[in-house]
Write a structure and sequence with these properties.
Layout lengths: L7 H14 L3 H9 L2 H12 L3 H14 L3 H9 L2 H11 L3 H14 L3 H9 L2 H6 L8 H14 L3 H10 L1 H8 L5 H14 L3 H11 L5 H4 L4 H12 L1
């Protein structure tokens, strides 16, 4: 850390090394004992607008948030609010996708999911769909929202955002990964009394027959389950 003094280019190089080692559980254990680099990465989310730096800092945050201890520390540094701010202000697709990846990791924690809803995160992420985004970013958004449908509180926020229409539209995208994410999400939402009627109404506007006859057995299974519901 004593060497961690310099310009953004130098910081970025240091972050790149830490990001690589933070993939390992032993490294995350060490970072939980001395969280200096992790805190530096968290602070950079609030202070830096340089995509090159963020591309190396965000993976540190993402990997370290697999640790319960470091995830709690990240919440103290308002990681969710910082990432949402970056998501709306940064034009770099690579940075946006890393942010969405990090939200997927944070979403394993109930307190993080609740915080994401409380600060209006669902609507802020959903607003990405109003812009021209790549298919890759679209997949990241769908995967994150799919994961959030496992939580009742998040399901309510998703329903209110209008995401159900998005899931149903994407069933016809022709992209298998997207189709599977959306089928899982819709099946999860059908478990919610408050969402079931909306999902059923929206589904009545399309036919599931192409999915029921898909060559992908998982798509067939999930489409059949959705139709039975």
């Amino acid at each position: 850390y004593e060497l961690f003094q310099g310009n953004d280019a130098f910081h970025s190089s240091v972050f790149a090394v830490v990001a690589q080692i933070s993939v390992e559980e032993q490294a995350r254990l060490a970072l939980s004992k001395d969280s200096t680099f992790f805190v530096c990465a968290l602070e950079s989310l609030q202070t830096s607008k340089e995509a090159a730096l963020l591309i190396n800092a965000i993976p540190i945050v993402k990997n370290c948030c697999l640790s319960e201890t470091l995830r709690a520390l990240a919440q103290e540094y308002k990681v969710i609010e910082s990432l949402l701010q970056l998501l709306s202000s940064c034009a770099s697709e690579a940075v946006r996708n890393l942010i969405l990846d990090t939200f997927e990791i944070l979403a394993i924690d109930g307190t993080c999911r609740k915080r994401l809803v409380d600060v209006g995160g669902v609507s802020k992420i959903y607003s990405l769909l109003n812009n021209s985004i790549s298919e890759n970013t679209l997949l990241h958004v769908a995967a994150l929202f799919h994961n959030l449908t496992f939580d009742g509180v998040c399901s309510d926020a998703l329903r209110e955002s209008g995401i159900i229409t998005f899931f149903i539209e994407q069933l016809q995208s022709g992209n298998e990964a997207m189709t599977i994410s959306c089928l899982y999400a819709l099946n999860n939402l059908m478990c919610s009394d408050s969402s079931r009627q909306i999902v059923s109404r929206e589904l009545s506007q399309i036919t599931l027959n192409p999915l029921l006859h898909s060559r992908n057995p998982l798509i067939c299974l999930m489409a059949s389950k959705l139709k039975l519901n």
